[in-house]
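Reproducibility note. Readers wishing to regenerate the assembly model reported in the main text can use the exact inputs given here. Chain order matters: entities are listed in the order in which they were concatenated for prediction.
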Amino acid sequence: METVAGTSCQNIGMRIGVLTSGGDAPGLNAVIRGAVLVGHTQYDMEFVGIRDGWRGLVDADFQPLTRHDVKGIAKLGGTILGSSRTNPFEGRGGIERINQVMGDAKMDALLVIGGEGTLAAAQRLADAGINIVGVPKTVDNDLSATDYTFGFDTAVNIATEAMDRLRTTGDSHHRCMVAEVMGRHVGWIALHSGMAAGAHAILIPERKTSLEEIVRWVKSAASRGRAPLICVAEGFMLDSMNDIHSERGLDAFGRPRLGGIGEQLAPLIEEATGIETRATTLGHIQRGGTPSAFDRVLATRFGMNAARVLHERQWGHMVALRGTDVVTVPFGDALGQLKTVPMERWDEAALLFG
Ligand code: F6P
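Running the prediction on these inputs yields the following structure tokens for the assembly.
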């Protein structure tokens, strides 16, 4: 594997359009900085910022992205480029339009930083001959090609701290506290933050669970004088449910917007146990603010290596983390199959429930 420090290709002076697309994740700015700094210093690249994801590409809405523009941004949450959940093939978008915009702006290639929806769109564009390289991003940690995505560690830390706080107020009022975390169709944020916070049950999409089982854990914790803490992933389903809980329609890629299962569970738990129960949906708090040191390092390495992949003209590829190495994989490896929580990981955590 070729590393940033030891490259041999000689493609000098490419002009790269950079966009961040989909839900934001702490670490996006560190990726941008890593790519721009290494692109400038090692490969003589020039960068153009594309505003608000695919929307800015279709609308030719750009901003400067020089070395100066990325100064000190690794520690900032959000993305200096803005993001959106725009589908590049809808409206006046499409391959022809994107080719035209890139041609007019003299862009040789695109660097897209995004999750599953973004990478699926990127693959379609790469298949159509557009020069494109990706960086995987999601707080959900659900992309199968990479062991971790940046943003996940920060989200887990925020959720853990929030649950620590819920515990003290739960203790004061002898209540059961239900904390709902993000994660879409996988339970990684719930598993990690729930374990870190010592939750009495962790409910994840990969494991349907009966209300009776939840009630057993709640009563068991309460019987020892503990205020029960339940960590539930937004994509969790009770065994009596046929569909995921979604009350806010579909996003631009046709995926259900999740959130609200905690509020559904709380009255059921209260009724079945007689213990006053409150639900808190942590929501976008988990995506905001300063990235953790782990996420800054991972995101910076992803950005630096993405510049190398661009330089090597490995179109249709993205960077990924395998163990502690940053590797290059085809977009297809990240798509099609979600990286779900293995049942043995949940079984391990469940030894401590109740
Ligand atoms: O994919 C990241 C994520 O934060 C999910 O965990 C969540 O379901 C979704 O995005 C929320 O999307 P939005 O920011 O569009 O409401």
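We highlight two features of this model. The first helix runs from residue 28 to 43. The chain has a mean pLDDT of 95.
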